[in-house]
Amino acid sequence: MYGGLESIKDLSKNIKGLLSDLSKNINDETLDDRQLIEVLREFLEDKRYFVVVDDVWDISVWKMIRCALPDNDVGYTIITTTRISHVAEQVGGDYNMKPLSLNNSRKLLYRRIFGNGNKGNNEAEEICHAELAEVSDRILKKCAGVPLAIITMASLLACKARNKMEWYEVYNSVGTGLENNLDVENMRKILSFSYYELPCHLRACLLYLSMFPEDYEIDRDRLIRMWVGEGFIQYEKAGKSLFELGESYFNELINRSMIQPVYDDGDIMIQGCRVHDMMLDLIRSLSSEENFVTVLSNMGGTSPSNTIRRLSLQIGQEKNHVMVQATFSMKHARSLVVFPAIASIVLPLACCRVLRVLDLDACDLSRANGSFKCLGNIHHLRYLGLRETGISQLPEEIGNLQFLQTLDVRGNAYLRLPSSVVQLRKLMCLYIDSWSKSAQDRIGNLTCLEQLSWLCIDDSTRNIIEQLGQLTELRQLSIKLDEWNDKLLECLCKLQKMQELVIECFGQCSIDGDAWVAPRHLRVLYIPNRCWFSTLPAWVNPSLLPDLTKLSITVRELHQVDLEILGRLPALRFLSLKVDNKNLSIIRGFVVGAGAFPCLVSCYFYQFVWPVVFQQGAMRRLRKFEFQQFYLRETRGIACNDGSLELCLGNLPSLQDVQVVL
Q1: Claim: this prediction has a pTM higher than 0.70
Q2: Distance CA 647, CA 651 (A)
Q3: CB count in 10 Å sphere of residue 108
Q4: Where is each NB-ARC domain found (predicted)?
Q5: HSE-CB of 597 using CA atoms within 13 angstroms
């Protein structure tokens, strides 16, 4: 699946992604475009394939794509979408999408508002539909069968009472809509009405999305931290952090269909979002009108005004002079975001004294270390993103940034934080691969930290475990240990706000499950197989961990009742469970009962005694199941009479991917 193919560079990135999805392990650093195309051709040569090439902007890009997709005797289908008519004609015959019929439009509208319905209780819903039928059809006439318009209207109506008076208010407010034609301006009238229905605090958050390029996958945590840095999120409820409020803003924009969610690899948790092209056009237009965001890009953008409030730089290296020209108007800028097409740039940081957000994620700054000397003078800075930039040092003056909330310097192999980082008393989020010992020794000073990744603990830094217990605001923590330390459990007992905990240990060890009770709101617990519990800890149960979504643990002994307890965890979507010692495991099969694991999407069982039998009604949403390194010899005593092992995988209605590894 390709997406947003504006240039050959986009094509190369998409081919690499496609090869990765097809489990083709390639070293993309050593393959040029021609070699990538050849690898893909060879892979598809003897296979049936179906490919959708989405949003092609240029015919030269299409010709390159076509070279990568072989004509073969097995059979294939290629579908291309584009917004440019002459591209469609040259691809080989265009098909203009027809609008939805009134009946299908009505189905889409009602499904988005009312859901799929409860088959046992449809009478009340039918009465409701009958009352709203006339106004619904009038609204749908304005949408003219355009799915995006219908979905946008549905998100508005879902927030209203289900009576025709309120629905008519929406109908009368939208304007002429699309009933006369399908041009972009009328489509934007519907989208803009949806925008003006937003609360003020959500409008600012939505407009900020114009900082990102088209078809860009925006990381959720990164975006929320930027919102916090800009000051868009203010404390409303006691007990909720700014980040948690930002999460609720993000989810509200998804619920209103203003942004599209992007899930992680296993479709377990939302990790980011995209903005529909039509919505992004509207947001950029509104941002430009209000001088909210200035965008400079190869595809065009707004010209630098006398006063730039927020600058998004999306241009290639050949246009770096634009940055120099814009510096005269940067003295009022609150955000500067530069995207990685730009290499070896010189930053006008001395001109950005009121900057609150500086994000240079994946830009090549390996030669720009000297540019950061004036960082300590940007006293209002709240967010500093330098991930994978190639920097090797930060100045000691970074300790002067007393308002800094987020520091992200992951992916810089040679970087060591200066000791002054422990002076950042308002720091809430710290992403780092390696520490200097002088900085790590005083980590207890950072009492506002909510997210910390990674913290490396070895012989020389064991004393910091006690300091870790002082960081009682921590909600996300990732730790690397050379060997297990029981004091860590004592420390974790003090961190009762923890929601995500990842512990990687390079030495084999046993964990005392009774020495720690996980916090009630824990969502993610990931402890890989080098650390094990003797049995399933008593605190892993539905009443104590109602929000647990991802769980990866190893146990030495597993009983049927343990599997039943795990199956009752109401929010669990990912499970990786390993039985580490076959001599202590129960030498018999397991049964996953009806109704167990109601939300589970991905399941990995390691070193079980096969079979695990799935009863009808178990794991109704399971899409991926992996069974590895099971004890084949022990299964002989519990096999069927004919020697087969029946798992009843047919009872898993959503199953798409099964892997069994001996």
Answers
A1: yes
A2: 9
A3: 18
A4: 18-103
A5: 29
The region that residue 4 occupies, defined by phi over 0 for left and psi between -120 and 50 for alpha, beta otherwise, is left
pLDDT digits (tens, 9 = 90+) for 43-70: 888 889 898 888 787 788 888 888 888 8
The neighbour count for residue 273, using CB atoms within 10 Å, is 21
Residue 455 host element (H or E): strand 451-457
Q: Is 80 helix (H, G, I), strand (E, B) or coil?
A: strand
CA 546/CA 544 separation, integer angstroms: 6
pLDDT in tens, 469-514: 999 999 999 998 887 777 888 899 999 999 999 998 887 888 888 8
**pLDDT of the residue at 382:** 98
Q: Report the distance separating Cα 80 and Cα 91, nearest Å.
A: 8
SS3 of residue 594 by DSSP: coil
pLDDT digits (tens, 9 = 90+) for 585-636: 454 578 899 999 999 999 999 887 666 789 999 999 999 999 886 665 555 5
The answer, yes or no, to whether residue 266 has pLDDT greater than 80, is: no
Residue 295 token pair: 């965008």
H-assigned helices in 493-584: 560-567
> Alpha helix locations (H) across 23-101?
33-44, 59-68, 85-92
**Tokens (6 digits) for 163:** 């009576």
At residue 179, the pLDDT reads 46
- Greatest C-alpha distance within the chain: 83
* Backbone phi, psi, residue 398, to 5°: -60, -25
Spatial distance between the Cα atoms of 70 and 427, rounded to a whole number of angstroms: 53
Going by C-alpha positions, the residue among 585, 526, 525 that lies closest to residue 555 is 585
What mean pLDDT value characterizes the chain?
Answer: 82
Domains of the chain plus CATH, in order, are 8-92 (no CATH), 102-196 (no CATH), 200-282 (1.10.10), 293-429 (3.80.10.10), 554-662 (no CATH)
Distance separating alpha carbons of residues 187 and 285, to the nearest angstrom? 14
